[in-house]
Every structure is written in structure tokens, then in C-alpha cells.
Amino acid sequence: VYTPMSLIQKTINKWMPRGLEMFGDERGGGANVKLGFKPHKNGEAQDQYHAEVSRVVRDLNERFLRERVPSLSASEAEKAQREIVHDGKTLHGITRDELLKLPDRRFYRRRGVAAFEMVGVDGQSFENVEDYIKHVLENIPETSRAGRDFRNHAELQRKVALGQLTVEAATRQAPVLQRVGGVCPCSKSVRWVLNEDSGNGNGNSGNGHT
Predict the structure, then answer these.
(1) What SS3 state is found at 190?
(2) Which residue has the higher pLDDT, 87 or 191?
């Protein structure tokens, strides 16, 4: 099945923020390290995850280049990828916009230092909340736009921008990852769920730094 690079890019844009948040607030984790529960502080784990995904993205770009230009060797594709991505060159008819990139680490965040900051995929700042929500919609998969997860984020983003909620309160009301039990094999996975009391801002999934 052919999957266009544009859809892969939007999928990365959606899941990279959530992936970073799975490690917890980047300011925390020190206590767990001292007690031996975790090998790294949250920020260190986020950095390692970001670097790992960066390598995957770089590899996908090089594979794309070799598919488009079969005459390229592996080393030539690596060099071309670097020049297109980092130097903004157009090589072999391929532009920067055709290759994958990681979104800014502050994009579409609901936990951590950048929670509910209105920062775009390329690091640009937004003043108007509706412009920002439109930007997010344009940069995540179409199948995600009508989902509960996005609707929840957009609602909280509006309330933060209008001063109706603090960032901390919005974070408490955002979905959290929980393991869902049951007999189905899918119960071994985790899902984003809302706390029962998240609607009143008293959820227990706050922006803690442990």
C-alpha cells in the first residue's frame, strides 16, 4: 500500500508530542532515579527518544531519495538528505518540503514546560488561538481531526488562551495514558483516557515533576 510522505509527516506531527509526554514532565524524574525506579530523568529520556526518532526520520528520507533516484548510493543519499534538510537545497528535483522532519518539541503539547504554548510545527508563534487550532488541524492526519482527543485539546487550548483555565488546570483535564484491563489481547496496550473527575479540573494527572 502506497503511503504518501505527506501522511507520514502528519502522523509524526500528531504522535511526536504525545511520545515526548509519555516520559513525564521534562523537569521531573529525579526522585525516581534516586530511588532506582528509572535510569534517567524525564528530560534525559525525552532527549534520547527524540534522538532515536530523528535517526528513523533520517533513514526514511534516505530511503525515499534512493527510491526517487535509484542511481544514488547509500552514502550519496545520506549526503543529499543532509544538504536538502539542513541547507535547504533542491537536489535531484527534490525540495525540503518533500522530506520528513520532526515538529518543534513545543508543538501540540499539553504537558511539560511547553504545555498549551501556541507554537507551530516549525517553531513559529501564534497570537490568535483560532489560527493556532487551524494550524494544528492542517498538520495532523485528517482521521484525527474529528476525534475526541483533538476536540479535547482544542477546547482546553481555547480556555487557556482566554484565561478561563490555567495551564496547570488544563493539564489536569487532559487525557492520560492508562493500561486498560480485560481479556482482549488489546488490553495489554495503553490508551489515552480521561479521568472521571477531569471535567471539574480536579484530576490526579497533574503537571507533577516526580
Answers:
(1) strand
(2) 87
Question: Average pLDDT over the chain, rounded to whole?
Answer: 86
Per DSSP bridges, beta strands 190-193 and 176-179 are: antiparallel
Q: Please name the helix (run of DSSP H) or strand (run of DSSP E) that holds residue 167, with its range, or none.
A: helix 167-173
Dist. CA 151–CA 38, nearest whole Å: 33
Measured CA distances, 99 to 5, 106, 186 (Å): 7, 21, 33
Neighbours of 149 (CB within 10 A): 16
Q: Do residues 108 and 153 lie in contact, with contact meaning Cβ atoms separated by under 8 Å? A: yes
Contact status, residue 179 vs residue 190, Cβ threshold 8 Å: yes
**Which helix (H) or strand (E) element contains residue 173?**
helix 167-173
Residue 131 identity: D
Which residues lie closer than 8 Å to 169 by C-beta, 6 or more apart? 201
- What are 147-175's pLDDT values in tens digits? 888 999 999 999 999 999 999 999 999 98
Rounded Cα gap, residues 62 and 57, in angstroms:
9
